[in-house]
Specification:
Strand content: 25-35%
Number of helices: 3
CATH architecture: Sandwich
Shape: globular
Largest sheet: 7 strands, antiparallel
Distance between the termini: 12 Å
CATH superfamily: q2cbj1_9rhob like domain
CATH topology: Jelly Rolls
CATH class: Mainly Beta
Length: 172
């Protein structure tokens, strides 16, 4: 697999819009990727929140009862079928919301080399994903797959009002 594998046209735009509608009516939390409470507060006070997240399935925990998980599993099944991966399942399902002043924090999603991350863009924005030193803009319906131990961060939009995406972690 490439450093970052890009797959297009995973879901139709109308389905992505339905997911965004669900997300826009959901409670959100300030993202916690590898930073403590004090660091989150420091970022908020500096007016550069890391972003907002919603975890609907987390490692070794029961998933929440949410229609978002069904959408996530359809995205996951479509991507893993295109990659010819079998006997894999999502171990974490996390949704992100970035606003124009959101600044992602560099982090790995997992340290074990057998894990992969799948970041799915629900819509085109001027934000995107930075993997190491390379920027990948949001493309409607595009999945970006890479090793979870690779340092990456989300980039909030500058002109667009909001950026929504899905981040799945799975083992191979």
């Amino acid at each position: 697999m490439e450093k970052v594998n890009l797959l297009n046209n995973i879901l139709p735009p109308r389905t992505n819009e339905k997911i965004i509608t669900h997300l826009s009516n959901h409670p959100w939390h300030i993202a916690q990727d590898r930073i403590g409470e004090f660091e989150r507060l420091k970022h908020i006070r500096a007016n550069n929140n890391p972003n907002f997240s919603l975890i609907t399935k987390d490692f070794n925990r029961e998933p929440t009862n949410s229609p978002l998980n069904l959408f996530a599993e359809i995205i996951f099944d479509t991507v893993t079928t295109k990659l010819n991966l079998t006997s894999v399942y999502p171990e974490r399902i996390l949704w992100n919301m970035y606003l124009p002043n959101s600044r992602g924090i560099e982090h790995p999603d997992h340290t074990d080399d057998k894990y992969y991350s799948l970041v799915y863009s629900l819509h085109k924005t001027d934000g995107g994903l930075m993997v190491e030193d390379k920027f990948f803009p949001d493309v409607d319906g595009q999945a970006k797959i890479f090793k979870s131990n690779v340092i990456h961060k989300g980039i909030g939009p500058k002109k667009d009002r909001v950026r929504f995406n899905l981040n799945l972690v799975f083992a191979v």
